[in-house]
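Progress against Task 2.4 (sequence-to-structure conversion) is shown through the following example record, which the project officer requested during the mid-term review.
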Amino acid sequence: MEDQGHLRLLAKLKELVRKADMDFVPLNLFLGERIPLAGVAHQNGTLRFGHDPKTSVLDVNCRAHDLDNLYVVDASFFPSSAAVNPGLTVMANALRVGDHLRNRL
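Structure tokens generated for the chain above:
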């Protein structure tokens, strides 16, 4: 019963591929198999950063556009997921933001 959502997602993907007149179903996108918990450990993209508050939540220094004292330095600032573990990039960005905060104080 817990697989019903997954099966509906696969059916919708197949339907969209048929409507697009594609001759294959790209099931290699992790949609054809169940992903173990370790496969979803790098959540990101929930608080994108950028210059425009209309398209991003954080500025380029990972500060919330609308809150002067809220900085976010986890993986949520990424616009999307890369094909590699983001841990080192997250750490480097946290150090960069820390330097910004130190200079700001």
